[in-house]
Design brief:
By secondary structure, the chain is mainly β. Helices cover about 0% and strands about 70% of the residues.
């Protein structure tokens, strides 16, 4: 027996697309890195507005992996899943999105180091921090009816760790979406 929720086709003749998102990721506005993820559609439905226009809604999960760095201070590896709600107005190319994310962050922080006077190299001592990061996200996407789209989002949350005091986690992401049509649905 299969789940009717995951396989429900609310809209007839709906094209099924697979999306890969690649983005520039800037936590705290001073660190930089990249994220890559995919979009897994959970539910898609239509609604009629008071002006008799169609408004489309989607709920999806976006698993992502990322890397960002603060040079000579720390390297960070992230893995998260973002639950995203999007709504589309008829004949609008840009549409808003909002999401909740939960993720894991592995940080390699340089704590101190030694300087070699003979050749000038610095050898750093590194400590590892493991954190849980829940965030909220808001943003906009270009309508994904074409092969390439783009998106921008802002995020805010908490970096929760047992190893040090919890802190805020915020920043921005801008990127490109590549949309692939399922050949079996043609």
């Amino acid at each position: 027996m299969t789940s009717s929720f995951a396989q429900e086709k609310v809209i007839p003749n709906q094209e099924k697309k697979y999306t890969i998102q690649v983005g520039y990721f800037a936590p705290y506005g001073t660190q930089y890195g990249a994220r890559i993820g995919t979009n897994i559609l959970i539910k898609h439905w239509l609604e009629k507005t008071k002006r008799n226009e169609n408004r489309s809604h989607t709920l999806s999960i976006t698993p992502r992996i990322g890397y960002f760095v603060n040079p000579n201070i720390q390297k960070n590896y992230s893995l998260d899943a973002n639950l995203v709600y999007r709504w589309y107005k008829q004949n609008h190319a840009i549409h808003p999105k909002i999401g909740l994310s939960a993720g894991y962050l592995n940080s390699l922080q340089n704590t101190d180091g030694t300087l070699s006077l003979s050749d000038g190299t610095i050898t750093y001592n590194t400590r590892t921090l493991n954190s849980f990061i829940p965030t909220i996200n808001i943003g906009f996407e270009k309508n994904r009816k074409t092969f390439i789209g783009y998106y921008i989002s802002l995020f805010y949350g908490k970096k929760i760790t047992a190893q040090e005091v919890n802190s805020a986690f915020f920043g921005a992401e801008i990127g490109i979406s590549f949309n692939f049509k399922n050949k079996n649905d043609e």
